[in-house]
Amino acid sequence: MAGNSVGSGERTRLRRRSFLTHAGALGGAGLAGCLSFDSATTDGPAAELIEEGFAAADIEPPFETTIAITQDEERNRFAQLLQSELDETGFFDVEIESRDFGSHVESMLAAADTEENAIFVSSWTGGWDPSNYVTMLFHSENRTPNGLNVGHYENETVDEYIDAGLTETDSDERVETYRNLQNELVADSPASFVRFREATHVWNGDVVNDWQTYPLQPGSYYAVYAPWAGVYTELEDETEFVGDLGSDVTNSDPVEINGVVSSQATALVYEQLVGIDFDGEVQPMLATDWEQLDATTYRFSLRKGVQFHNGEALTATHVKRSLERYEGTTRESDVYDWYENSTVIDDHTIEISCWREYGPFETALFNVSIVPLAAIDGEGEADHDLQTKPIGTGPYRFVEHESGSHWRLRRFDDHWFAGDETVPATPPIETVTLEIITEQSSRQAALERGDLHFSYNLPSASLSDFEANDDYGVGRRVSGGFDMILYPCYLPPFSEPSVRRGCNMLVPRERTLETVYHGIGQVAYTPISPLLEDYAGESFQKTIANEYVRSD
């Protein structure tokens, strides 16, 4: 298990290390004399750091490398800005390679094993807890392929801060820990954080009524029908809702999903013990209530009368087996960062034990989908593959997926919700069709033609026009997502922290926000979104930027 090697002893107070301790001791100027830097310009602190790292790695510029991006117009414009900044130093000779989303993800997962020479431009969607923004990406135990630490970054202090943040239950202490962690990460720069994203939703105002914008991108379609959050949507004179997805669905098994789009496509299919509503509050879902028995043990009462889409009735055994199937998978740390074991008390009562005190326990459960036994061990029928056909307890069941074309769901008439004064017992929308349209401009055109009722993440330059048009509704909220650059820490010269930090200083954040995204979002210097204001407020961001990133 991923968690067992960490231990659960008393947390040690850590002090942030000085970033340049070892680099300064080497004497960058002396090392530089061993190589020829005639092609490079060492004008300014960023270039000086890069020169220092090239010398330490014994690499003579220009170093040829690639910026790897998904096929996206805005992403391509940003890559061109970054390419220009790096090339102008003379230390780099950069090409841009554009890949479809599936190939991009596959390349990132295999990059360290193949020692791919590429800087990956990607995005990440965190959640309602600060651990969601750092654990999977930067803890050394979460290196690919069993995690998403793409660069195989290792930093003992970062690991200790991440572990301390997970075990800390005092809110003030957690804020201090995660602020110290962000200091360390930006100083060491395994990634450059470029922009905090906004959740931007646009819908046809003549068809869609009262749409609510969920701030986290995996939940883009919760507004269709989320009775646990008190939210649903109606259509004018129609029963089929047509939205879109920005890429194909590559995997629909919760333990293997590693992309936002697959999470969006399955959000109405799978359910969890608890949900987190549109305001960040924990709400009952498949569990009706729960209590903490001691520091590491919780007892849950399960909702009665819940059916899976294949006819199985929900029991505590489903919860136990769903938790345990995460072991050894891509999403293992979602569970095994905290899970020790569970005890079935009866069909509708389960006790879950953690191997350590775990601060974000309730929010972590929102990441764990409960699935039928047929998908786990074949009990009752032949083994079922969730990778191609998801089965859950949600208000919509999977109907079909035509690769590159669409993803379709239909209302599950045996859903457990009986209705209340806020949400009707039956979803007003009968069918949910999500068209797969990879280009933002094409998605916008489809919405304007009336082929779509709803689209998310449209070109930033178009949002102001939609906001000014009474035919459309627009929802904008600060989100849990950020755009970033992942450096190949396994490969010289990017194995040198001074090179990564120098590159981090060169990232044209303000220009990118203004010219590529037309002011949609916020400049990012740290990984934790301002959605969690205590951990990443404006003054903290400014302090980090002044200390580690800005060169003026």
From TrEMBL:
Keyword presence, Signal: yes
Top-level taxon? Archaea
Output the Pfam families linked to this UniProt entry. Answer: SBP_bac_5
Which stretches make up the Solute-binding protein family domain? 281-539
Keywords, alphabetical: Signal, Transport
GO terms under biological process: peptide transport
One GO MF term attached to the UniProt entry: peptide transmembrane transporter activity
Which PANTHER family does this UniProt record tie to the protein?
A: OLIGOPEPTIDE-BINDING PROTEIN APPA (PTHR30290:SF9), PERIPLASMIC BINDING COMPONENT OF ABC TRANSPORTER (PTHR30290)
Q: Which family does it belong to?
A: Belongs to the bacterial solute-binding protein 5 family.
Q: Quote the protein name from its UniProt record.
A: Peptide/nickel transport system substrate-binding protein
Say which species the protein is native to. Natrinema hispanicum
